[in-house]
Design a protein that fits this description.
Structural class: alpha/beta
Mean pLDDT: 92
Radius of gyration: 19 Å
Helix content: 40-55%
Largest sheet: 7 strands, parallel
Shape: globular
Order of helices and strands: HHEHEHEHEHEEHEHHHEEHH
Low-confidence stretches: none
Length: about 325
């Protein structure tokens, strides 16, 4: 386990060990985990510039003011957008690319409290539209800017890292995957999907993490009996099982900046992140290699279990990484043609 004190110690070194003017993009940052992480970034980085994307203008205005209060020398730009649609994702990325030549951090946490099979107007299952397709599109569009960055090049997607499970290759969007199996399916889809991107960008590190049980507005929006049961569980056991939202933001910033999760190819210009303290080792990636560049990480900063790594290895041997890449490209071509 990576202790909270170690996380906090590492974060305090960001201003002295990483260069000023870091550029970060936060997608899904007008509430919850994204907001908490953005504020930690504002608190610790020197003269940062952060783009944060969300649907609520009121929340965006509030968070912008709060970030400026945390860091008067920082620049914070809110982009109002519904990123469940690939075409909108493209528009947001074009806006960022018109202003930036390089970015250091891409932080993806947009989600939806919908467990039914409703689709977007682009005919993608809404749940996976936000948890996989939209995020993957952001990565695909912005990877050239990440590759151009110095000192730090990192992608973090907040999901359920460490909970990878069986995947149905005939139903990648999870339109028919049983509810009991949908978490493992999407987690494996994303972890192996990151591996396909990492092959073309070894100088960038990729993290799929589980933040743990964090009480956010998302819990309040889950519909039906499942939502009722989830809220009842959090009400009764939340004190013992939930990660406080501020701690979650601190831990997410650690994932985004620590040298514990380096890219596969660091290069002469560095890019690993905040140097590790005594007794802290580089993490094992999804391939069970130390410093492999793609990491599935549990809430406490530790790597996925050997069982998960064995599961992913089996799918890798079956060519699943390539199948996921082909499916992704096919869907994007269908939507944008």
């Amino acid at each position: 386990m990576v202790s909270l004190s170690l996380v906090q110690s590492s974060n305090t070194l960001i201003s002295s060990t990483l260069p000023p003017n870091l550029v970060a993009v936060f997608v899904g940052a007008t509430s919850g985990i994204g907001e908490a992480t953005l504020k930690q970034f504002a608190k610790h980085a020197r003269q940062p510039r952060a783009y944060f994307v969300g649907r609520s203008q009121d929340a965006g205005d509030r968070i912008l003011a709060e970030c400026k209060a945390l860091n008067a020398k920082g620049e914070f730009i809110f982009i109002k957008a519904d990123v469940s649609l690939i075409r909108i994702v493209d528009e947001v990325c074009e806006e960022i690319k018109a202003k930036e030549k390089a970015i250091n951090i891409l932080f993806l946490s947009a989600g939806v409290a919908v467990l039914d099979r409703r689709e977007t107007s682009e005919h993608i299952h809404l749940l996976t539209a936000l948890s996989y397709y939209s995020r993957t599109r952001f990565i695909t569009n912005l990877i050239p800017l990440l590759q151009r960055a110095s000192a730090l090049r990192r992608v973090i997607t907040v999901g359920k890292g460490g909970f990878e499970g069986p995947i149905n290759p005939s139903d990648f969007p999870a339109s028919r995957v049983p509810l009991r199996a949908i978490r493992g399916h999407i987690c494996t889809l994303f972890s192996l999907g990151l591996e396909s991107v990492a092959k073309t960008a070894p100088e960038v590190s990729f993290i799929h993490d589980d933040p743990g049980a964090v009480k956010t507005q998302l819990f309040e929006r889950v519909e039906g009996i499942i939502g009722v049961l989830m809220r009842a569980f959090i009400f009764i056991f939340g004190y013992w099982v939930c990660v406080p939202i501020e701690e979650c933001g601190e831990r997410q910033l650690y994932l985004a900046t620590s040298a514990r999760y380096p890219p596969k190819s660091v290069g002469r210009d560095g890019g690993s992140g905040v140097p590790l303290g005594d007794g802290v080792d580089v993490a094992r990636g999804t391939t069970d290699e130390v410093g492999s560049g793609v990491y599935s990480v549990k809430w406490d900063g530790t790597s996925a279990s050997p069982e998960v790594q064995k599961l992913l290895a089996g799918y890798r041997d079956e060519g699943m990484v390539e199948k996921i890449k082909e499916h992704k490209e096919s869907e994007f071509n269908r939507i944008t043609k």
